[in-house]
Amino acid sequence: MLARILIAFGAALLGLLGSIHVIATFFTNKLDPRDPATIAAMKATGLVLSGPTSLWNAWIGLNASLGLSLLLFATTYLLLAVGHVSLLRDSPALTWLPVAGGAAHLAIARRYWFRSPFIGVAIATACFLTAAFTLSL
Predict the structure, then answer these.
(1) N or C, which terminus of the chain has less Cβ within 10 Å?
(2) Burial of residue 107 (number of CB atoms within 10 Å: 0-12, 13-18, 19+)
(3) How far is the C-alpha of 121 from the C-alpha of 64, rounded, in Å?
(4) Residues ≥6 apart with Cβ < 8 Å to 22
């Protein structure tokens, strides 16, 4: 029961972070550069990888993809925790995947992210880690 609660809480927290990220991307200016000239330069500059795609469009797409990916991951693990915890108990790969993913995100977040998302991902990862140990017993 503890593992189920921890996974559900960790997943819900990641889902909240993903929702906030999508909202911030499309409905606020929170992820925009402070300098309007930077936005203009991003809109006018293409990527080497793909000429027609502006750096601005890539920035919006990257942020939207991150938020939606967090939502998908969170929804998957919330559904597993609520209705299919036996799949987690029977599959070490499914049990430890959010721990590995959380650790990877924390390694990146330590240098590149804001403080609040770092703390949220750290809490979710701790929940997943504790649940994984509980399910492994």
Answers:
(1) C
(2) exposed
(3) 18
(4) 64, 67, 68, 71
Continuous H helices in the chain: 2-27, 36-44, 55-83, 85-90, 92-112, 115-136
Q: Contact 99/129 with Cβ under 8 angstroms?
A: yes
pLDDT digits (tens, 9 = 90+) for 102-119: 999 898 887 777 778 889
* C-alpha span between 125 and 65 (Å, rounded): 20
Q: How far apart are CA 131 and CA 6, in angstroms?
A: 6
Q: Are 75 and 19 in contact (CB under 8 A)?
A: no
pTM exceeds cut of 0.70? yes
pLDDT at 94 over 90: yes
Q: Check residue 4 and report its DSSP letter.
A: H
What's 67-91 look like in SS3?
HHHHHHHHHHHHHHHHHCHHHHHHC
